[in-house]
Amino acid sequence: MYQGFYNLTSGMLTQNRNLNVISNNMVNIQTAGYKRDKMVSSTFEEEMLYRTGRYNKNIKEELGVTSKIKTAEQTYVNYEQGSFDTTGGIYDFALSGKGFFCVDTDQGVRYTRNGSFHVDEEGYLVLPGQGRVLDANRQPIQLPTDNIYVDADGGIFTMENRNQLATLGIFAFQDNGALVRNDHGLFTGGQLQESTGYVIHHGMVERSNSNMVHEMVAMMGAQRAIQSAAEMSKIYDQVITKDTTELGRL
Prior knowledge:
By secondary structure, the protein is α+β, with helices and mostly antiparallel strands.
């Protein structure tokens, strides 16, 4: 009977963590280039149940495997391509295919799918609040004019005479699962490799791949699971109270 408390309590804790993940996805619905998280749960420390003899306790019979605790195993990032919004912004870039833009932050080089850039007072292309955008040679991109044209490969040219000013740095990783995302949605870690097959769309941004309807359904499911577990815990408590007070008198 007491095993039920382990099952129910661990279930509530796990669903609370799941709600945090879902809430973060919902908050970032409007964040350009955001990739949604998904939490995966599993059982913890499976145990074999045995039945022993009534008189000879050395005789054991296997009944099956059980686990008393449910736990959050890992939170995965879904790198699925998001849809595109046409903004017409001079410094807006959407990236289709594999790869990330490269940004030089105060904490070091970081990578992002957010191509909603601006220029600072010195004319450098920047991701607002994070740092300067780097080119293919991992150098800051300085634009002397806003009258620019950007091709599908990320080459930045002047409209007047088509002089090339820079090339956007697009970098990929052998395993996106090795990447770590910080609080600002920027990625680090993993082994870099050449990025091919991508296309840059000038005047557009990639939307978050979170879906509000999907996240709302997942949130309601998690909330109902927590409520159900809480109600069952009350029933367990009432049964155990009777067991210790009323049956104990017999």
